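LOG
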Amino acid sequence: MKYIAVFILSLIFWMLITFRFTVPNVITGSVASLLCAGIFGRYYFHNVYKFLQPKRWFWLVVYLIMFIWECIKANFDVAYRVLHPRMPIKPGIVKVRTSLKSEFAKTILANSITMTPGTITVDIIDSDFYIHWIYVSSEDPSVYTGKILGRFEKFIKRFAE
């Protein structure tokens, strides 16, 4: 079952990269995906049945839409701070604690934070994330945890754990 999951993901990835739905392209993608599944299948997906649940795919799509929206907002915020004559920044490193349990979910969260302009995940120790933030708006941990993790964590729980 692990091999099938890797094959399907590889083929989807191939089709998204090439974006040509011709017979030779599908055959080439299938052969490449079979090779990937044969070589790497045993290393991935400890619980394949989670991968096959449609509700997880739904929440992944919802998360991607929300992530794109948050990135757009963060881009405007960083552009405002850079273009403002007084450059209103208050950088700092904050420690936030996540309730995510799986390493996969924590990795998705760390990457989402880093890909959002204005924040960078510096380190992860157990459930604590150390985040460099361009504008630390509060000294209260619950406030800045909500601002940084709140928008991502609840959706990641629904599809990655």
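LOG (cont.) second protein
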Amino acid sequence: MFYILIVWILSAVALLITSRLVKGFEIRDFKAAMIASLVIGLLNAILRPLLLLLTLPINILTLGLFTFVVNAIVLKAAAGMMSSFKIDRWMTAIIAAIVLVIVQLLISFVFNV
């Protein structure tokens, strides 16, 4: 249980860092980042597998790079559900998805989670 809480907090921190690095990707505060992290986690559990299955042929053709577009769709869907989380354009969502993966990778490397 403690591990899940730590991962949730670190995911919210990654969202906040991404919001500072990517223009047009805005999260109001840490509370909003925590809620956004929860919403993204739920969408990743429910929507992302379906999207990956539907986009499997194009994902194979692009050698997996289309996964960033699927991640952007999940981010954009989460932003659409919340008023305190905004993404201006689709290109911003794709860039934010790439930056978020890098930030989460760095955080998991530093904190060993």
